[in-house]
Amino acid sequence: MATKTKRLAELSGEQLKEVLGLIKSADSVELKLTLPESTQRSAIDGLGLDPLDAQIRQVFFFDTPDLRLQQAGIAVRARRIQGRPGDTVVKLRPVVPDDLPEDLRRSMTVEVDAMPGGYVCSASMKEKVPNEDVLEGIRGERPLRKVFSKEQRSFYEAYAPQGLALDDLRILGPTFVLKLVVEPKELGRRLVVEGWLLPDGSRIVELSTKCVPAETFTAAIESRAYLEDLGLELTEDPHTKTKTTLEFFAGRMADEATQTPA
After folding, report:
1. pLDDT band at 9 (very low <50, low <70, confident <90, very high)
2. Containing H/E element for 158?
3. Could you tell me the pLDDT band of residue 240, with boundaries at 50, 70 and 90?
4. Range of 53's domain?
């Protein structure tokens, strides 16, 4: 299954109709912007963010060293979260909401992610889990499949490459994430800021806001105007958090494999 995000500028009239259909059938829409490093500091200052207010998260992805799940459009993730239970997610993208089996559709969230330059519709099944359960799975004290619910395991098995079990996956992580939520009075809606800190010292900063499908275009216009007033250039950035994080740790695995004596 292809995972390439479609570029809005390249869409035909029929494809634009498809976008509207996806939004109409989705449960929510998330507007996202990944900031290039050159604008991260100005954005943080403009939003008046204090890193001491951030919630700490520890994120683990699971895949093969050659990222077979990512290539199949599947993301498997677990998080430990400061001050609250952790969670696990199995996500599939891209999807067409009306094509999903009815029994699965009732137990998952379908969301359209819209960003400068494109969009993608995903279906995810999320469960809260104790942080200790996630830690036991990472340490090998609990089979990885046991960190995920029965429904999540069934969802995974229905779409994962044949023969690739959850317990066969490798750990890609951890990545430490700082999350802040602000509600600028000029914007009038919640804005989530996430800073993903990779082990090599690089970072990914993403701004996002969620809305119901009927508010998509109003939210997009208002958010764009607010962010442009901060001096941010809303251009496409290929360094999205999931893609960048997966490729970083897959590259590290490859480096370790070449350095291991035969």
Report:
1. very low
2. helix 150-159
3. confident
4. 8-259
Structural element, H or E, at residue 153: helix 150-159
Assess if residue 1 is contained within a domain: no
In the chain, how many domains are there?
A: 1
Does 22 map to a domain?
A: yes
Q: How far is Cα 210 from Cα 215, in angstroms, rounded to an integer?
A: 10
Q: Classify residue 2: in a domain, yes or no.
A: no
The full DSSP string for 92-118 is E-S--GGGS-HHHHTTSEEEEEEETTE
The answer to whether the beta carbons of residues 22 and 93 sit under 8 Å apart is no
CB neighbour class for 103 (10 Å; exposed up to 12, middle 13-18, buried from 19): exposed
Query: Which pLDDT score is estimated for 192?
Result: 97
E strands, the chain, are: 28-35, 55-63, 74-81, 86-92, 109-115, 118-129, 170-182, 191-197, 203-211
Of 17-31, 82-96, 143-157, 188-202, which gets the smallest average pLDDT?
A: 17-31
* Residue 3 counted as domain residue: no
Residue 135, domain CATH: 2.40.320.10
Give the strand pairing for 109-115 and 28-35.
parallel
